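Task 17 of the worksheet. Students: predict the tertiary structure of the chain below and write it out as structure tokens. Keep your answer in the requested format; marks are given for formatting as well as content.
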Amino acid sequence: MRITVKNATGEPLFGLDVPLDDPPTVVNPPNGKGREMTLHWERALDDEKHLRHFIICGCPDLYARKPFPQATIFTLVVLATVIATVLYGFNQVALAVTVLTVVLAIDLFIDIGTS
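Model answer:
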């Protein structure tokens, strides 16, 4: 597993490759600058060795929220709006509302799935 340690502003400090078979409990920065860090593996990994919490502070929110490309959702909403407008122009109001409802359902599904 590759671990990248970042500072409070999100800038990478250093990276380490850690074997999951025998993970270390303490790591030192490879350049020798900085303090050693204790890794809390018992809180970080689940039974199937999936990372669920941050190994340094144990914060569960870091891996519970998965980023989803906002450009994808924006593109989907714009496309649905154009399609709904065209359908409305051809007096297909029910289809236009259906398109917008489907996009709303997709957006809600993504929001629920990533929180």
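Marker's comment: The mean pLDDT is 83. The radius of gyration is 22 Å.
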